[in-house]
Design a protein that fits this description.
The complex is a heterodimer. Chain A has helices spanning 2-21, 27-52, 56-87, 92-126, 131-196, 201-219, 244-250, 266-281, 300-316, 353-365, 397-402, and strands spanning 264-265, 285-290, 292-295, 321-328, 331-338, 369-375, 379-387, 393-394. By secondary structure, chain A is of the alpha+beta class. Chain A has 2 domains: 2-128, no CATH class; 246-402, Heat Shock Protein 90, CATH 3.30.565. In chain A, a hairpin with a 3-residue loop joins strand 6 (369-375) and strand 7 (379-387). The longest helix of chain A is centred in the middle third of the chain and has 66 residues, at 131-196. Chain B folds into 2 domains: 6-127, Rossmann fold; 134-247, Winged helix-like DNA-binding domain superfamily/Winged helix DNA-binding domain (Arc Repressor Mutant, subunit A), CATH 1.10.10. Helix content of chain B is 54%, strand content 10%. In chain B, strands 2-1-3-4-5 form a 5-stranded parallel sheet, sandwiched between helices. In chain B, strand 4 (81-86), helix 4 (91-100) and strand 5 form a beta-alpha-beta unit. Classes of the chains: A alpha+beta, B alpha/beta.
Chain lengths: 403, 250
């Protein structure tokens, strides 16, 4: 018996290892292997016992007990391997269904193993003792089992409860670590930078503003703006959005097309663009959007021109800076306003490529218009308009924010 | 007129409250301050301020924050006007206080001189519109849609909206101009002029610049803005209704 048990242990270990090493759905086969192996061993044992002259019912009893214990133990590797097998198979629903099924199978197997083991014991002793005595013996056995179960119960319950508490604690700790990591990477770093730049009020204001924007996004959702970490919506990414190649052709420096290729709304693209200009120029720009459209290759030149206008405003104008986007039907209007001293639009300095080429020329080439209104003491306003296919008219930004 | 405006400050952040008070105390008479809903209502009832600078998120009460303070203070101090101060510019928060009766909102990053000017504007009976609020109004009132296009599918809603508007009116004191003489069907649309004004404000124009742009006086701009604010508070259309329902104000 002891010899068999060690062999059994090896078997279980080997089976567990096998299913651990091979990925995918191997565990049902493994359990079947273990069971058939056990059956084979049991038959071999019975044959060996009969050959050695041991009584049949004793051999049969031991074989049944052995089978019962093996099938009970096979649960161990089964359960332990369950999550491993499920990882590769994809969505949660299938995983949950599979784990439910395996739990049902597990219960059935346990009941079966108990029944087989008890039957084995009865067969074993049934040959030696009379039926009455077997009955009394069985009763005594049950009473002892029940008593032991009652004695062990508190310890068992404590163990399970502790496990649950441990899990909850781990989850809490994980959450805390996530928060700590985020705050460390963002707020603490910014505070350190602010202390280092304490004598540069403009820099401090810019840092604080950028951090505020980040934290706001982190706290109030809207994950895909700003952070390159990629929000949940990037899962269904298609090639429909702004492709980096096109963006590169349209503008030499247009980071808003950055990393993600998911289709996104124009207001979101503009939001990110404004954030980027705020960071590079250390200015604060007020962005207001009304209506929305899809950001695609049609709107790339618009955003590039808007970026140029914002950079001009930040470099040559004065605060407050405002950017206003309105999409109505197929008409996109974008205004960039500053309150600087203005400049003479009729006499652009030679080599002033920024305005004439990057804004006026770009909009004209792409079927849009650009008007620059600049007055001394009033500031400058760049107005960009573009007609797009009105079927792309998307929901309002507020609707998106609510989600 | 300077110094005669009596101002109260409501904010649960003590440091911020102290900062605001030290910013405005040379220009206004600060008559009270509080940090939660219950004490704010008591303070407003007792000190009867002209203007309350009101944080949107204030703890206590039934969890309604700034809007709860406004709604519950109106019977105690009917002539008091409210200017919302918010660190958040989420439409749900801002929409709620505006619906409750605030005369405008400014973000907490506002400069001292702008804050003082805004308080004065509110005390004079005018609304304070930031570009964001103007954008929100344009979105809420279905930007660019004129009465002819949008009224028809919502005819059935008009009667209900009128009732809602009347219910809301019960909570509100009368505002210096626009003595509630609105045709309810007009509440849900902005006039073309009002749209122009909103659009210019959203583009970053000051009231003065808007006035110059449209060849009207600053007073007229302020009147238009106040009219829009009133519509915003009374209207029950889509966006607004959802915010209001979300915040359980209506």
């Amino acid at each position: 018996m002891t010899e068999r048990k060690t062999r059994l242990g090896h078997l279980v270990d080997a089976a567990a290892q096998a299913s651990e090493n091979t990925s995918g759905r191997v565990h049902p086969a493994t359990v079947r292997n273990v069971t058939s192996l056990a059956f084979f061993l049991a038959i071999v044992g019975v044959v060996w016992a009969l050959v050695s002259g041991i009584e049949f019912h004793i051999a049969l009893g031991f074989a049944a007990i052995f089978l019962g214990i093996v099938s009970g133990w096979s649960q161990l590797s089964f359960i332990m391997n369950q999550p491993l097998g499920g990882v590769g198979s994809g969505d949660d629903e299938a995983l949950a269904a599979a784990s439910l099924r395996s739990r049902k199978v597990g219960i059935a197997m346990t009941v079966l193993s108990v029944v087989v083991t008890i039957a084995g014991v009865l067969v074993l002793f049934g040959g030696v003792l009379g039926p009455r005595q077997v009955l009394f013996g069985a009763l005594a056995g049950f009473v002892i089992l029940a008593a032991v179960a009652l004695i062990i119960a508190p310890w068992w319950i404590t163990l399970v409860a502790n496990l649950g508490m441990q899990e909850a604690k781990t989850a809490r700790e994980q959450l805390r670590l996530d928060f700590t990591a985020h705050l460390h990477d963002s707020v603490l770093q910014t505070l350190a930078l602010i202390q280092l730049n304490a004598d540069d009020p403009k820099k401090v204001a810019a840092l604080a503003h950028a951090q505020e924007r980040d934290l706001r996004e982190w706290l109030y959702g809207d994950m895909e703006t700003g952070s390159p970490a990629g929000g949940p919506s990037s899962a269904g990414a298609t090639a429909e959005g702004v492709s980096p190649a096109e963006a590169g052709a349209a503008s030499t420096a247009a980071p808003y097309t950055g990393t993600d290729s998911a289709p996104e709304s124009l207001s979101r693209a503009l939001k990110r663009l404004v954030a980027d200009v705020e960071d590079t120029t250390e200015r604060q720009i007020e962005l207001v959007t009304v209506g929305d459209a899809r950001a695609d290759e049609q709107t790339v030149p618009l955003l590039s021109a808007a970026r140029e206008a914002m950079l001009n405003a930040a470099h040559h104008g004065a605060p407050p800076y405002s950017v206003y986007l309105e999409v109505s039907g197929g008409l996109i209007q974008l205004f960039v306003r500053d309150h600087g001293s203005g400049f003479d639009t009729a006499h652009l300095p030679a080599g002033h490529l920024g305005v004439s080429e990057s804004i006026l020329g770009r909009m004209k080439r792409n079927g849009g218009t650009a008007d620059i209104d600049s007055r001394p003491g009033w500031g400058t306003e760049v107005k960009l308009t573009l007609h797009v296919d009105s079927s792309q008219h998307a929901g309002s930004p507020q609707e998106e924010e609510k989600q | 007129m300077t110094g005669s405006i009596r101002v109260a400050v409501v904010d649960d952040h003590e440091m911020f409250r102290a900062g605001v008070i030290s910013t405005i105390q040379n220009d206004f008479e600060v008559v009270g301050q509080a940090g939660d809903v219950e004490s704010s209502i008591a303070m407003i009832g007792q000190s009867q301020p002209d203007v309350v600078l009101l944080d949107v998120h204030v703890p206590g009460g039934q969890g309604g924050g700034g809007s709860e303070i406004i709604l519950r203070s109106v019977p105690l101090s009917p002539q008091t006007l409210y200017l919302a101060l918010s660190v958040s510019d989420s439409p749900a928060d801002v929409g709620a206080v505006i619906r409750a009766g605030a005369r405008g909102y400014v973000t907490k990053t506002i400069t001292a001189s702008d804050l003082i000017a805004s308080v004065r504007q509110v005390a004079d009976g005018y609304a304070v519109f930031s570009p964001k609020l103007a954008g929100f109004v344009l979105t809420a009132f279905d930007h660019g849609a004129f009465s002819g296009e949008t009224a028809s599918p919502e005819q059935t809603g008009v009667a209900r909206e009128k009732r809602h508007a009347e219910e809301l009116l019960g909570h509100q004191r009368s505002v210096p101009q626009n003595n509630g003489a609105y045709d309810p069907s007009e509440i849900d649309v902005l006039s073309p002029r009002e749209q122009e004004v909103m659009r210019l404000i959203a583009r970053g124009y000051s009231y003065k610049e808007v006035a110059a742009e449209l060849f009207i006086s600053v007073k007229t701009v302020e009147t238009h803005v106040s009219a829009v604010l009133r519509k915003l508070q009374l209207s029950n259309r889509g966006e607004l209704a959802r915010w209001a329902a979300y915040r359980r104000i209506v």
